[in-house]
Design brief:
Layout: E1 2-4, E2 7-9, H1 12-22, H2 26-39, E3 44-45, H3 47-57, H4 64-74, E4 82-83, H5 84-96, H6 99-110, H7 120-135
Antiparallel strand pairs: 1-2, 3-4
Length: 136
């Protein structure tokens, strides 16, 4: 993803890559990008925006403890934002990716400090947070 005059733009190579990875045709990728930019004019979703999205997706649940774990999956470059490419890539991997890709993303949820291992402390924290989500 690039920027032109301060506005986010989707480069041709991004469109081709997202089309290939998502199974959408190029027109559908462009439409999805336009909708994303309409909702997030600077082309980046902040954690606050993600929180609102989670509360809409799970209206009767308290997803506050899980949101930071899920946000980490989407924020691949760890810049504190989710851009369109990150959002589309994870969305389609989680919904239609190969088992290895899905498991890699799930592993990233559990690996809280991103050191490549899951400690008992990380596992315990995440299980407690998931349990809280189920109880609400």
């Amino acid at each position: 993803m690039g920027s032109k005059n301060g506005k986010p733009v989707l480069r041709e190579e991004d469109i081709a890559a997202l089309s290939k990875s998502s199974g959408l045709d190029e027109a559908q990728v462009r439409e999805s990008f336009d909708a994303f930019v309409e909702d997030y004019p600077d082309g980046r979703m902040k954690i606050k925006d993600f929180r609102e999205l989670m509360s809409k997706a799970l209206p009767k649940k308290d997803a506050s403890k899980m949101e930071k774990h899920v946000f980490r999956i989407y924020d691949a470059n760890k810049d504190g934002f989710i851009d369109f490419s990150e959002f589309m890539l994870i969305f389609f991997i989680m919904s239609d990716g190969a088992p290895e890709e899905v498991l890699t993303k799930i592993f990233r949820v559990f690996d809280v400090n991103s050191d490549g291992t899951i400690t008992q402390k990380e596992m315990t924290k995440l299980i407690k947070d998931m349990y809280g989500l189920l109880q609400s």
